[in-house]
Amino acid sequence: MSSNPYPIGTPGQPWGASEKSAWLASQRIQRSYADEVERHILALQDTFNLEQYGQLVYSDGDYALWGLRSKNWQPELPTALVTGGVHGYETSGVQGALRFAQRHAADYLGKVNLLIAPCISPWGYETINRWNPDAIDPNRSFYVGSKAGESVALMHWLRKMDVAVTMHIDLHETTDTDNSEFRPALAARDGKTHDNWNIPDGFYLVGDTFSPMPQFQRAVLDAVQDVTHIAEADENNQLIGSPLVQFGVVNYDTKKLGLCAGVTDALYVTTTEVYPDSPKATPEQCIQAQVAAIRGALGYVLKLKA
Questions:
Q1: pLDDT tens digit string along 217-266?
Q2: Which N-terminal stretch is annotated as signal sequence (predicted)?
C-alpha cells in the first residue's frame, strides 16, 4: 500500500537544494552523542587503542569519529571488524557494539584482532536519523567517490591500516519508522513512488550474495535465538521484500549497493537487523541480541581457525 505524500517536495520530482535545506531545517537534536556514546568509547582507553579516524563538521556541531583497535595486535591472528550506527537512529547497533567492547572483548584476547567502530554516524545518532545532514544515506555510500563523510572516513581508516579482515559484522535495526518516515523520505528525495514493505517481527540477517556463508549465518542466528526471537518470512517467503535464502536470512549484493557490509573483502560478512518495535522485545534485549550476534560470529570463525 502506498504511503501518503511526503511533506517536503513535489511528488515525482527529485529534491533540489531548497528541498534538502527544508528537510535539514526540520531535524532536531534529540539525544547526546557525547554523553551516550563518546564518553563510553573514551573510557575504553585501557582496553583498546583509541583511534580518531575522522572529524565531521556540521552546523549542529563537530563530531569526532572513534575506532577501537586491539592493543595486543598480532598479525598472525584473524581480524574481525564490528561496525555500528551506520544508520545513527538504530540505537541497539551503537549500544551493542559498545556493550561488546566493554564486557566481552577481553574474552578474545590473543585469539582475534578486533576493530570496532561503534557509531559511524553520530549526527544521525543525535537526530535519530537514517541520513546525514546532506540527505545522504551513509549505508549506501561505501564506494570510491562517495560524498558521505561518515563512509569516506571509515574507508580511509581501513585503507590506512591495510589489514586483511576475516570477519565483518555490521549492526542494524529495522524499525516501524522505516515505513512511516525513512522510506517515504527516500522516495520523495529521489522523485519516485514508494510502497511499504512488511516489517519483520524479530531478528534477521542480511548476508552477502557473493559470500553467503550459510553456516556462518546459521551460527549467528543460533547464538541470537537464546536472547530474542528470529523473524518469520512473510506470505511471499520474503523479508523486507527479498527472498529468504534460509530461515532468518536474506542476501544483498553489498558492494553494488554501497553497503557498509561490503567495505572490506572479508570472507565472513553479515548485517544484523533487530526489530526494536516488537511487543516481544525490550530495548535491553535488542542490545543483548547484537552482542550475542557478535559473539556467535566470532565463535564460528575461531572454531574454524582452531
A1: 999 999 999 999 999 999 999 999 999 999 999 999 999 999 999 999 99
A2: none
Grid cell 527529485 in the structure block, residue: 14
Distance CA 187, CA 134 (A): 16
Buried b (16+ CB within 10 A) or exposed e, 125-143: bbbbbbbbbebbbbbbbbb
Cell triple for residue 40?
563510553
Rounded Cα–Cα distance for residues 32 and 114 (Å):
26
Q: Name the H helices within 37-148.
A: 39-42, 91-103, 122-127
The model's pTM: 0.97
At residue 199, the 3 state secondary structure works out as coil
Domain membership flag for residue 57:
yes
The domain tally of the chain equals 1
CA 290 to mean position of chain CA atoms: 11
Cβ atoms 123, 56 nearer than 8 A = yes
DSSP one-letter code for 275: -
Per-residue cell: 151? 563512509
CA neighbours closer than 13 Å in the CB half-sphere of residue 23? 25
The residue behind cell 582475534 is 112
Give every CB contact of residue 96 below 8 A, 6+ residues apart in sequence.
Answer: 84, 171, 286, 287, 288, 289, 290, 291, 293, 294
- Overall residue count recorded for the chain in this entry: 306
Residues spanned by the domain of 129: 27-179+223-230+256-305
**Structural domain includes residue 263:** yes
Task: Decide the pairing of beta strands 61-70 and 113-117.
Answer: antiparallel
d(CA 131, CA 148): 9
For residue 297, being part of any structural domain is answered with yes
Q: What is the CATH classification number for the domain harbouring 82?
A: 3.40.630.10
Cα 1 to Cα 3: distance, rounded to the nearest angstrom: 6
CA gap 43, 284 in Å, rounded: 21
